[in-house]
Amino acid sequence: MSARRAPRRTLAVLAALPLLALAACGYGSQAEDSGEHAVAGAPKVDGLDSVRIGYFGNLTHATALVGRHEGLFQKELGGTRAEYATFNAGPSEIEALNSGSIDIGWIGPSPAVNGYVKARGKNLRIVSGSASGGVKLVVDPKKIASLKDVKGKKIATPQLGNTQDVAFLHWAEDQGWKVDAESGKGDVSVVRTDNKITPDAYRSGSIDGAWVPEPTASKLVAEGGKVLLDESSLWPGEKFVITNVVVSQRFLKEHPKAVEAVLRASVKANRWITAHEGRAKAAANAQLEADTGKPLPAAVLDPAWRSLAVTDDPLAATLRTQAGHAVQAGLLGSPDLTGIYDLGPLNKILKAEGAPAVDDAGLGAE
After folding, report:
1. d(C-alpha 219, C-alpha 122), whole Å
2. Spatial separation of the C-alpha atoms in residues 223 and 199, rounded to whole Å
3. Is 185 helix (H, G, I), strand (E, B) or coil?
4. How many CB atoms lie within 10 A of CB 147?
5. 141 CB-near residues (< 8 Å, 6+ apart)
6. What are 54's strand-pairing partners?
7. Sheet harboring 308-310: ordered strands across?
8. CB atoms within 10 A of CB 166
9. How far apart are CA 242 and CA 150, in angstroms?
């Protein structure tokens, strides 16, 4: 890593957040990668030797996976080297962003909100969307035949207070069921289970189903599970944020051209994914294999890929709604999210491409 990296500071306070988890837990361990070779003879962006990019080894971070595999970030950064760090937990990526170990990263809505609230709005901005959808309620069809049968069963979510946990608690409340959010006990038993071991828990019979992101949902289907509900069906237009792009406020202020370069690559990656579905899926899986040591089998990859949609739009209104659900469940105090978005750089890029601007739902920085 470049010598310009700020000293790492351990942010133990993150451990105390009530809403700790990431929107979709990754499958690889946290690791820092050497990055790519800068484009020979190209000028450095903002005079930087490197830009450090964080993301998860997970399909919900398809924009980052494809952007890296296809060299799009490095192409836009030119003589500035693209360096990468992969994560498998939201708090660790927020810590890396806060400490200056990464400059910009792909992350789920809950850890972005958590980090922003805990830092009193002084550490990050959401600067782009990345993905929507890809969350399902998958159940054992021998035990659960209909939505009403979920009552009295054991349903896994990735982690207390994470995006899927909050969504399931809110859905259960809408069914008229009472569940203690902290303990997970009530008319439905909520079993907080890491995505990596949820398929094993399902196979052993210790859970009856799970409200989980891809590719965990498709892994459960491969084990004989049945999709009982796709969360997208609960949202207007069947769209809700699952992954955003965040940047440290300091880096955004000091190196706006570098941020724009990464966002241009993100927009181009999303366009390429949309135009070349088969190749993009293969590229994402190849990068997953490089990051985690194991590609996804076709039986998991194909349905998981179909349930996700890449998007530049951060779908800010849905983040506001998700935060409201967390407050309603008693897992989050009433947060002031004003200023969590700065979509100016993204909208500048979209305008140059003739694309419509995206909205911050009134939560933009002044």
Report:
1. 38
2. 8
3. coil
4. 13
5. 224, 225, 226
6. 85, 105
7. 31-33, 81-87, 50-56, 104-107, 241-248, 124-133, 308-310
8. 27
9. 24
The residue assigned the tokens 């947060």 is: 335
Extract the tokens encoding 353: 């491409």
Spatial distance between the Cα atoms of 349 and 355, rounded to a whole number of angstroms: 9
Cβ atoms of 39 and 130 closer than 8 Å: no
Read off the pLDDT of residues 144-153 as tens digits, 9 standing for 90 and up. Answer: 999 999 999 9
pLDDT recorded at residue 32: 60
Quote helix, strand, coil % in the chain, to nearest 5: 40, 20, 40
Predicted confidence (pLDDT) per residue in 153-191, tens digit: 999 999 888 889 999 999 999 999 999 999 999 999 999
Is the Cβ–Cβ distance between 2 and 221 less than 8 Å?
A: no
Rg (CA), the chain: 20
Are 61 and 131 in contact by the 8 Å Cβ rule? The answer is yes
Angle, CA 44 vertex, CA 40 and CA 48 arms, to 5°: 125
Average pLDDT over residues 254-260: 98
- Residue written as tokens 């237009």? 237
Largest interatomic CA distance in the chain = 64
